[in-house]
TrEMBL record, chain A:
Residues 101-293 form the ABC transmembrane type-1 domain. The lineage of its organism: Bacteria, Bacillati, Actinomycetota, Actinomycetes, Micrococcales. It is a multi-pass membrane protein. The chain crosses the membrane at residues 43-65, 105-127, 139-161, 173-195, 216-241, 272-293. PANTHER family: ABC TRANSPORTER PERMEASE PROTEIN MG189-RELATED, ABC TRANSPORTER PERMEASE PROTEIN MG189-RELATED-RELATED. Its main location: membrane. CDD domains: TM_PBP2 (cd06261). This is Carbohydrate ABC transporter permease. Residues 1-24 are annotated as: Disordered. It comes from the Bacteria. It is found in: Cell membrane. It comes from Isoptericola peretonis. Belongs to the binding-protein-dependent transport system permease family. Keywords: Cell membrane, Membrane, Transmembrane, Transmembrane helix, Transport.
Automatic annotation (TrEMBL), chain B:
Keywords: Cell membrane, Membrane, Transmembrane, Transmembrane helix, Transport. Pfam families: BPD_transp_1. InterPro entries: ABC_transporter_permease, MetI-like, MetI-like_sf. CDD domains: TM_PBP2. It is a multi-pass membrane protein. It comes from Isoptericola peretonis. Residues 94-310 form the ABC transmembrane type-1 domain. This is Sugar ABC transporter permease.
Length: 309, 320
């Protein structure tokens, strides 16, 4: 867990040979056999990665603007009968991808907000305030990590149908997706561990200066925690964008369904070229986010293996 | 805010391990900031209580009850479990899930490792390599499945069949044939997931101490021996973790069978989670919730073993 605060320090280290070397040493690299052998392997690997990683994306982009008849007859020919830009326009307007796109954005934003509120306030209470019963709460939060999501599926669905104290079903309400997203032990743990690593002297100084728990939370702890909030935010938005089964169950009204639920539903009734254009539109934002926050994504993915628990 | 400024400065919450404070009166609790603690914990307690702890308890109850949406649930003992275990489709689903997990390991376990070890040696534009490897992971899974479903179209005009036709192969019945369907699903799932594993390995590879390589070179080890005797042993922990993660993930596979084939052809791709979904939600009049929760608890019991292993491993890691 000490990985997080030091990640920046590691990045600053020069990528030179000493200290940041793989199995091959500098003298190894001076040998022609290694130079050419490894160099050739790397070129081959790059070609493979382009074909496998980028290839399907490029194909999708091509199909999104290819007339349906060409896709059906000669899928791999490069625009034999011109480009059909209208696929994109029809997907956005006629198939109402714009509306589902907006639903997806709303779902992601709400889930993000709920997750951030629960994780930061809870993490603050457990790490900084530390009430006596904190250990019990923490153990209960941690224990949910041992319960696979599949166990929650049916009882959670029935809870959404008839939530306690509310008196009305949450089905067909965004809250049905937003609120359960907040119950993420992973987030709470990640944030709490980060708060644990913050220097206590700063908190003490703030307290001596007369800051109460709310002031301390808002003006001291949160501003110091931007890195971890970034990681949690990216995880939250991506997870929400990917979610399929849960919104499928609790959002029955097509008008409020996200892309992930609508795309399979419209598959059969939509012109193939338009449908593929819709798929392309649904892919653009996550890919753009990845390209913009690449470092955050890759660091988060690397941590995924080591930090949990 | 006013309440906090009049309160005396709270003692530092850090206290010696094992120290127990005497019980306090409600007034002392309030003065000591007990209310503020509760205010901060409230979102967590409400959200976890209603959407995690309560449903988990309810799952256990429902597994021994007959639940429908009209009348009150009735206790039925282990009937739900008996009913599920007597379903011939269960064993098909278990077999298919194991087959999926096996193929996923076969396709998806060695490839990211080899790729990561090679990428570690890249000296220029390593970021480009990892970005390309990770790109499929950021594609929304539903889009990935629907796209691959289109690529997999049978007949000579399918995308994959056209490409393979250039070298004289095919056309193959990717999703239409019972023996082809599962490997096709796994191939798509591997494409969508392998990048994440590559990044995990790359992160682990950067923490291999360079001294070990230096030392093995002094002993005259070549590239292969360095990989075999230094790199792989150093990755042992993370290799085991990704293995467990993959098992936990593949045991709950749903999206691919649901969207690619709906469990067909001829039930060849019905998985355990798809069966749970069918029990609970396929019948629009209200499903067999008891059977669904019973089966999900049985699956969870199997997975709990792996979760505990995973937890112990990662914990011993982060403390070391």
């Amino acid at each position: 867990m000490t990985l997080l605060p030091t990640a920046g320090a590691r990045r600053r280290r020069p990528a030179a040979d000493d200290g940041d070397r793989g199995a091959l040493s500098a003298p190894d690299w001076r040998r022609p056999a290694v130079r050419w052998g490894m160099g050739g392997t790397h070129v081959l690997l790059l070609v493979l990665l382009v074909v496998v990683g980028l290839g399907p994306m490029l194909l999708l982009a091509k199909f999104a603007v290819t007339p349906t008849q060409d896709i059906l007859r000669t899928p791999m020919a490069v625009f034999p009968n011109g480009i059909a830009w209208e696929n994109l326009e029809r997907a956005w307007n006629d198939v109402q991808i714009s509306r589902y796109f907006l639903n997806t954005v709303w779902l992601a934003l709400g889930s993000w907000a709920v997750q951030l509120v629960v994780a930061t306030t809870g993490g603050y209470a457990l790490s900084v305030l530390r009430p006596r019963y904190g250990r019990v709460v923490q153990a209960l939060v941690l224990s949910t990590m041992f319960v696979p999501a599949v166990v929650l599926l049916v009882p959670l669905y029935l809870t959404i149908l008839d939530p306690p104290l509310l008196g009305r079903s949450l089905v067909d309400s965004f809250w049905a997706v937003w609120l359960p997203a907040g119950a993420s032990a992973f987030n709470v743990l990640l944030v709490q561990r980060f708060f644990d690593s913050l220097p206590r002297e700063v908190f003490e100084a703030a307290r001596v200066d007369g800051a109460g728990p709310y002031r301390l939370f808002w003006s001291v702890v949160l501003p110091m925690s931007k890195p971890i909030l970034g990681v949690v935010s990216v995880f939250a938005v991506i997870a929400s964008w990917k979610d399929f089964l849960w919104p499928l169950l609790v959002l029955k009204d097509p008008a409020i369904q996200p892309l992930s639920v609508r795309l399979p539903a419209i598959e059969a009734s939509t012109d193939l070229g338009v449908f593929l254009a819709a798929l392309a539109i649904a892919t653009v934002l996550p890919v753009a986010m990845f390209l913009a926050f690449q470092r955050l994504f890759l660091r988060g993915a690397g941590l995924g293996g080591a930090v949990k628990g | 805010m006013a309440a906090t400024t009049t309160a005396p400065p709270r003692p530092a919450p850090v206290r010696p391990a094992g120290a127990r404070r005497p019980p306090r009166s409600p007034a002392a609790w309030l003065r000591g900031g007990g209310l503020h603690n509760l205010v901060f914990l409230l979102p967590l307690l409400v959200v976890f209580g209603v959407f995690s702890w309560f449903p988990i308890v309810r799952a256990v109850l429902m597994s021994v009850q007959e639940t429908n949406l009209v009348t009150d649930p009735t206790f039925v003992g282990l009937d739900n479990f008996r009913h599920v275990l007597a379903d011939p489709l269960l064993w098909t689903a278990v077999r298919n899930t194991l087959y999926f997990a096996f193929l996923a390991l076969l396709f998806g376990y060695p490839v990211p490792l080899v790729a990561a070890v090679l990428m570690r040696e890249v000296r220029r534009a390593r970021g480009l390599y990892s970005a390309l490897a990770y790109l499929p992971v950021v594609v929304p899974p539903v889009v990935a499945v629907l796209l691959w479903k289109f690529f997999y179209k049978g007949g000579p005009t399918g995308v994959f069949n056209t490409i393979l036709g250039w070298v004289g192969l095919g056309p193959f019945p990717w999703l239409q044939d019972a023996s082809w369907a599962m490997p096709s699903l796994v191939l798509a799932a591997t494409w969508a997931g392998a990048g994440g594993t590559v990044i995990i390995y790359l992160a682990a590879l950067t923490s291999v101490p360079p001294e070990l390589y230096d030392a093995s070179e002094v002993d005259g080890a070549g590239l292969w021996r360095k990989v075999w005797h230094v790199t792989l042993p150093q990755l042992r922990g993370v290799l085991f973790i990704t293995l467990i993660l993959q098992v936990i993930g593949t045991a709950q596979v749903f999206l691919e069978p649901y969207l690619f084939t709906g469990g067909g052809p001829n039930n060849a791709t019905v998985t355990v989670l798809l069966l749970i979904y069918r029990y609970a939600f396929q019948n629009s009049l209200g499903g067999d919730y008891g059977a669904a929760t019973a089966l999900s608890l049985m699956l969870a019991a199997v997975l709990a073993v792996f979760s505990v292993l995973y937890f112990r491993l990662t914990r011993s890691w982060s403390t070391s």
